[in-house]
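haha ok so turns out i had the wrong file open the whole time. this is the CORRECT one, sorry everyone. sequence first:
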Amino acid sequence: MKKFIFLFVAIVGIYVSGCKCKGTDCPCDGDNCEEELITSVVLTFKDSASTDSLVYAFRDPDGDGANAATEHDTIRLAADKTYLVSAKILNESVSPADNITEEIYEERNDHQFFYLFTNVNVNFTYKDDDTNTPPLPVGINTQWKTGAASNGNVQMILKHQPSVKDNKQTTGDTDVEVVFQTVIQ
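then structure:
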């Protein structure tokens, strides 16, 4: 049982190693890297057929520290619907909270969100691109079309891929990784 609990905590935990570059020594973009604290991932779902919104979050006030997450929502969506989804990455350990999503967008040519669906009936589409040639997806804004009722997981991974962005989740460094239990009903 202890092994299962440890594995569960390891899977649902948040992985943090955000890169904020300054100076001239940085392996990221020719600047000096310093880690950012990422404490929260917030996904907002807007039903494309109405004005209804659903918000689901993962919050871990000390990031990858010793304390457990204080919020880890289960995503619950209706079957046969289309949702426009926006991701927000925050550092809520400071006041006001630091909206890291803005930096990710500014550095969109070096970042990509990946969404991996396991046992969940969702047809997924990216709704934003970077300015690379050819353009590659970013994933701050996406569209999820739900199918029949199902129960599984969505793994959200934000990759930092300076100068090597290639639309592959195996390239670059992981800034954030969260697994959300997901129910289509």
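Confidence is low (pLDDT under 50) at residues 1-32.
again sry for the mixup
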